[in-house]
Amino acid sequence: MWRCEAFNGSKNTDDQNLCHDFHLVISIFSLLYLVLCFPIGLCYNGLLVLVNLCNKGTMTMPDVYFVNIAIAGLIINAVAPVYLLGPTSTKWAIWDFSNEVYITLLILFNVSSLVTMYSTALLSLDYYIERALPRTYMSSVYNTKHVCGFIWGGAMLTSFSSLLFYVCNHVSTKIMECSKMQNKEAADAIMVFIGYIVPATAVLYALVLILRIRKEATPLDQDTGRLDPSVHRLLIATVCAQFTLWTPYYVTLLVSTLANLQGKGMDENYSRGLHFTKGLSKLLAFSSSFVMPLLYRYISKNFPSKLQRLLKKLHCGNQRCSHEHTVVQQVVT
Fold first, then answer.
1. Which phi and psi (to 5°) does residue 240 adopt?
2. CB 228 within 8 A of CB 61
3. Contacts by 216-221, CB closer than 8 A, 24 or more apart
4. Rounded to whole angstroms, how far apart are CA atoms 283 and 249?
5. pTM
6. What is the pLDDT of residue 100?
7. In terms of C-beta density within 10 A (0-12 exposed, 13-18 middle, 19 or more buried), how is residue 273 classed?
């Protein structure tokens, strides 16, 4: 991923030294991610999915969205090591830019990013609906599960158009259907629009509605069926974290797309800076799979109790736990 072969023949030693400095910095960040962030993110994403699926009866609407974000995070975790450990630095044969494996991993990353961003956007909209009209069917757990199914299906369908451009950009030019579709910039432009602009607009609209309704105190605020107040803090933290980590990636993707569409030769310093900026921005995008489950763990009030119940079940096995037996006897009495 990080290499300076392009500057080995350059007479300017400053360019070579600067390139190697960039190489060292990004390599250190990549190593820190693989050693610290990757195992922690993998563990917490798996725990988030396992704990909530084992406690389906107590799942709320935000829990369902975070389970989908965690599943997408697991996919991003699986893609990250292959990307950070290859291809050009390790010369892996499996990671050839004309290989189908590259396209497959890229599409998995794109689908996961779409699921993450749209889950955040729909969580914001559903939280507003729950604030405005408590106990409505639209923001119920049952309906949210079906919505999340559409999120995954929609992410695959919306990334299909960009998939065609990516595939045709890497396969042979002898295929007639791809002769006019070898345009990677079009695929990147589609991903910027559907993966960032659309969900960002939805989140901004939802936050404006939420701020407006929070200024109006109503008798519904005393309703015991409303979501826990910590959900609002979780929502704000999620939105801020997601867009902080994903905005650099989509901005650099847009900048590189516009630069390539101009068709002009870029300055070497600009080209090198853009290359390493794209690397850092993608590293930030990978770190979202590490940050999101930690936010859910430390802000959600329900997760620690669910985790304790799951651990007690695993400890007791098939036998009824003593504290459950006592509770049953008290109920019978």
1. -65, -45
2. no
3. 220/134
4. 9
5. 0.81
6. 66
7. middle
